[in-house]
Amino acid sequence: MPALVLLGAQWGDEGKGKATDLLGGSVDYVVRYQGGNNAGHTVVVGDQKYALHLLPSGILTPECTPVIGNGVVVDPSVLFSELNGLNERGVDTSKLLISGNAHIITPYNVTVDKVTERFLGTRKIGTTGRGIGPTYADKINRVGIRVQDLYDESILTQKVEAALDVKNQMLTKLYNRRAIAIEQVVEELLSYADRLKPYVADTVLLLNKALDDDKVVLFEGGQGTLLDIDHGTYPFVTSSNPTAGGACTGSGVGPTKISRVIGILKAYTTRVGSGPFPTELFDADGDALRRIGGERGVTTGRDRRCGWFDAVIARYATRVNGLTDFFLTKLDVLTGWEEIPVCVAYEIDGKRVEELPYSQSDFHHAKPIYETLPGWSEDITKAKTFADLPKNAQAYVKALEEMSGAPISAIGVGPGRTETIEINSFI
Ligand code: GDP
Ligand code: IMO
Ligand code: MG
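^ thats the input. predicted complex w/ 6-O-phosphoryl inosine monophosphate below
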C-alpha cells in the first residue's frame, strides 16, 4: 500500500492539522518528517480543540501509530509537556515512536535562536524562537546531538563540548552573554533519557516494513512550501525541507513508495514573520480576513499577515512538490464578500510575469495582478457535497483549481472534522 504526503502549499498554517486528522482514521502511521515545535497544528474534534506542536496529528486517532522521523528536531522538554497535556485529557500516547537519529534541540540552540534574532534587529527573520535554525545548523555542521546520544554519557559529553566550543566564544565575545556550562547541559539532557527510551525506535526499518506489509503511511508536513530552505522565500524561511522531497530524507522512505502528494491550500493567503508577501493587505479586508479566519499564530500568538489568494504561489507549489491533489481550506471565511480578488500573475518592473521569479529581488518587487470573482453570502458551513455550495462558491473553487494546476479533492468549510466536502477520496 502506498505512502501519502500532506504538506503546506503556502507559508504554513493552511490547515494541515485538520486535514491530517481527517485522514487519520484511514491510515496506519502518521509521520512528521521535518521541523519541530515551531509548528502549530490545530485539530478540532467535536467540542474539543487540540494544538499540536511537535507530535504528529495522528496521535489523536487511537488506531494510528504516530512517528517522529529522523528529519525532525526534538525538544525533549516540549515533547514531555505536550505528552502530559494530552494524557491529562485522556489521550493515549503510548504508541508514539521517535527516530534515534532525530536531532535534539538543546537549551543552547534556543538561546542562540533568540540572541541572533535580537542581533539582526530590523533584518530579523521573525523566527518562532524555538531553536529550530541553530539545531539544523548544528546538524549540518556535524556538531548536532541526536536522540541516540542520550544513551552514551561519554559520547554525549564530548559532543556537547564540541558544540559549545565555538558557541560560548560567540555568546561571550560577540553577544555579551554568559557562557553555557557543559555539565549543566549534559545533566539536563541525561534527565530525559529514561522517559524517552520506550519511544525510541529504528523508524526507517519500521516504516519500510509497514509499507511492504501494505500498511498506509501518511507524512504530515510542518510549515509550508514557501518556507522551505531550498524552495522558499530565502532567507525568510525555516531551516528544513517541508516540500515533498523532505518526506523521503526525513523518514528514510524512498520516493518510489509515494503515490500521492496533497497540498493544503488556504482559500486566501497568510504568513507569520518577516519576508515578501505580494498579496498582503493592509486595509479593512486584511483585518476582516484575520478576524473571521481567526488568523492568530498557534505557537507564538502573533497576528498573521493576511492577503488574497495567490495563484502564482499555488502553481509553484504544484510544481516543486509534484502535487497530485489540493485540499482547499477555509472557504467559509470568504463568505460575505461581494467580490473576491485573486492574484493570477505579477507585474515586475512593468512586465507581466506568470510564474514565481527565481530572483529574490524580483519577488520583493512583485505587484499582484488581480482578477475579481463574484462572491456569495449564503452560509456554507453545512455543505456536504460540492453541489451544496452556492454557484459563485463553486465557480471560485473551479477557478482556483484551473489556475493552480492540480485537482481540488476536498474543501474545508469549517474547523471541525466533519466540516469538509470530500470530492475525490485520498486513499
Ligand atoms: P496548520 O498549521 O496548517 O495545521 O494550521 P493551523 O492550525 O495553524 O491554522 C489553521 C486554522 O484554521 C486552525 O485554527 C484550524 O482549526 C482552522 N481551520 C482549518 N480548516 C478550516 C476550515 O475549513 N474552515 C475554518 N473556518 N477554519 C479552518
Ligand atoms: P505550521 O506547521 C507558519 C515561520 C516563522 C518565521 C520562519 C522561521 O503551523 O504551518 P523558525 O522558528 O522555523 O526558524 O521560523 O518560519 N514559521 C511558520 N509560519 N506556520 C508554521 O508552522 C511555521 N513554522 C515556522 O514565523 O517566519
Ligand atoms: Mg500552524
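The chain has a mean pLDDT of 97.
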